[in-house]
């Protein structure tokens, strides 16, 4: 197992050396999106063109706990990735480079990740307070009317993740 | 007759909801620490995160998990106690106030298909029964849906017996994989009716983590199912390298001569619950 420090937006060149099970500390910009936002993104793209912010983006499946007025996000762990599986091949087509979530993905998503040279990271489920410590700033990027399910743009520093699928077919959830 | 004022109930519920959301109880923390020591890569990475998370949440008094859940109340009202309002109204006020003031996530939608957020995490789910005495005791669960969504119920045949029950429990956990945030606690309800079995399964999650079933036959069945679940090697966060479940707790109840309902309610490692007594 190796430990990497990475910066998002990520390029394929940054991802080639990763192997499933490696520890990653991620900094930079990530976008949050859950079920409702995914549906909006796909419907919007079908009606016109995909959002430009998705190109090269890292998507984190997370609906954070807001905390009290004026406080930054206090708890922000991952939600179950499987619910976003139906939308994910589309998002990868729009240029999304990395995903952060919890739990295994469908075979279709795993194939799409390899095809698009993208990586899936897992954040530890339930470690909301720990993961929120990595969030330095946040703003609403889109769909404010969705409340806790709106799309946020987060600035993060050293978010602890594990590589779930790498660019070489390695998959932490497929074990003999 | 003793009257219990709504404000007193709301204050106690408020304090307990904050404690439940931010603090892992000592016995559970010790159980998780024991698991962490035994875990190997890559599950060990998840156990490290889980333990560090518990410390940070307690230190900063912030929610352990961003899914501050849908709240479930099990109320035991003494027959000689009086309330000034229906209990559900009081408890819903308590949840609305706590979740709004503390900034916990509003995770409830008022209609399951139109999905409009209720904005204050109500309604809560309230179960009540009458007991002797003049007290009011309430078990409170904060239930996140990563684990809740992995729960299940099956109406077995009486002929399926213990093996049928155990197979359904193990299969349910196997299908869940890493989604319910392992290491998990498995609540099982056996018997009752279609709606009672899941209720028993959820009540089973209230048992203390190190406790064994008071019935020795069921205690050994719980141990057997736990062993079979851990043999699945799902591991912490579904990464493998460590234990999948901390405990299996079963509550059995009388049922119909033609039935054997089995319900499985999965809880994540945070097992957020507490009890108040007024």
Protein architecture, described:
The complex is a heterodimer of chains A (176) and B (278). Chain A has 176 residues and is an alpha/beta fold. Chain A has helices at residues 12-15, 35-47, 88-93, 107-115, 128-132, and strands at residues 3-8, 23-32, 58-60, 98-101, 119-122, 135-142, 151-165. In chain B, the strands form three sheets. In chain B, strands 4-2-5-10 form a four-stranded mixed β-sheet. Chain B has a four-stranded mixed β-sheet with strand order 6-9-7-8. Chain B has a two-stranded parallel sheet with strand order 1-3. Chain B has helices spanning 6-22, 26-38, 43-60, 87-102, 145-148, 161-176, 196-204, 216-230; strands at residues 2-4, 70-78, 81-83, 125-131, 136-143, 152-156, 184-192, 245-255, 260-267, 273-277.
Summarize the structure.
The complex is a heterodimer of chains A (176) and B (278). With 176 residues, chain A is α/β, with parallel strands linked by helices.
List the helices and strands and how they pair.
The complex is a heterodimer of chains A (176) and B (278).
Chain A: E1 3-8, H1 12-15, E2 23-32, H2 35-47, E3 58-60, H3 88-93, E4 98-101, H4 107-115, E5 119-122, H5 128-132, E6 135-142, E7 151-165
Parallel strand pairs in A: 1-2, 2-3, 3-4, 4-5
Antiparallel strand pairs in A: 2-7, 5-7, 6-7
Chain B: E1 2-4, H1 6-22, H2 26-38, H3 43-60, E2 70-78, E3 81-83, H4 87-102, E4 125-131, E5 136-143, H5 145-148, E6 152-156, H6 161-176, E7 184-192, H7 196-204, H8 216-230, E8 245-255, E9 260-267, E10 273-277
Helix pairs in contact in B: 1-4, 2-3, 6-8
């Amino acid at each position: 197992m190796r430990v990497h420090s990475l910066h998002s937006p990520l390029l394929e060149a940054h991802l080639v050396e990763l192997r499933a099970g490696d520890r990653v500390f991620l900094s930079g910009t990530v976008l949050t999106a859950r079920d409702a936002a995914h549906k909006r993104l796909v419907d919007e793209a079908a009606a016109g063109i995909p959002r430009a912010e998705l190109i090269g983006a890292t998507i984190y499946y997370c609906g954070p706990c807001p905390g009290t007025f004026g406080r930054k996000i206090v708890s922000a762990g991952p939600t179950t990735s499987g619910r976003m599986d139906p939308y994910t091949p589309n998002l990868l087509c729009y240029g999304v480079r990395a995903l952060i979530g919890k739990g295994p993905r469908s075979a279709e998503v795993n194939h799409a990740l390899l095809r698009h040279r993208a990586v899936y990271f897992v954040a530890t489920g339930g470690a909301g307070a720990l993961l929120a410590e990595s969030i330095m700033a946040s703003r609403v990027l889109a769909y404010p009317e969705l409340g806790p399910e709106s799309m946020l743009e987060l600035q993060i520093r050293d978010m602890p993740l594990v590589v779930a699928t790498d660019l070489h077919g390695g998959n932490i959830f497929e074990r003999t | 007759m003793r009257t219990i004022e709504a404000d007193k109930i709301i204050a106690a519920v408020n304090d307990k909801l904050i404690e439940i959301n931010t603090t892992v109880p000592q016995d559970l923390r010790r159980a998780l620490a024991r698991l962490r020591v035994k875990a190997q890569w890559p599950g060990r990475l998840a156990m490290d995160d889980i333990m560090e998370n518990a410390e940070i949440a307690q230190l900063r008094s912030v929610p352990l998990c961003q899914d501050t859940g849908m709240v479930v109340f099990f109320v035991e009202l003494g027959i000689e106690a009086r309330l000034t309002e229906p209990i559900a109204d009081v408890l819903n006020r308590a949840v609305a106030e706590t979740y709004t003031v503390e900034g916990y996530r509003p995770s409830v939608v008022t209609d399951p298909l139109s999905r409009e957020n209720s904005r204050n995490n109500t309604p809560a789910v309230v179960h009540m029964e009458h007991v002797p005495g003049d007290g009011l005791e309430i078990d409170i669960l904060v239930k996140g849906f990563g684990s809740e969504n992995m729960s299940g119920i099956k109406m077995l045949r009486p002929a399926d017996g213990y093996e049928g029950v155990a197979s359904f429990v193990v299969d349910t956990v196997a299908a869940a994989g890493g989604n319910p945030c392992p290491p998990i606690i498995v609540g099982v309800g056996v018997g009752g009716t279609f709606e009672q079995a899941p209720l028993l399964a959820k009540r089973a999650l209230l048992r203390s983590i190190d406790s064994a079933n008071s019935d020795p036959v069921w205690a050994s069945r719980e141990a057997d199912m736990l062993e079979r679940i851990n043999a699945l090697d799902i591991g912490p966060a579904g990464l493998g390298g460590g234990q999948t479940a901390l405990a299996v707790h079963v509550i059995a109840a009388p049922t119909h001569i033609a039935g054997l309902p089995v319900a499985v309610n999965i809880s994540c490692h945070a097992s957020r619950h507490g009890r108040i007594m007024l």
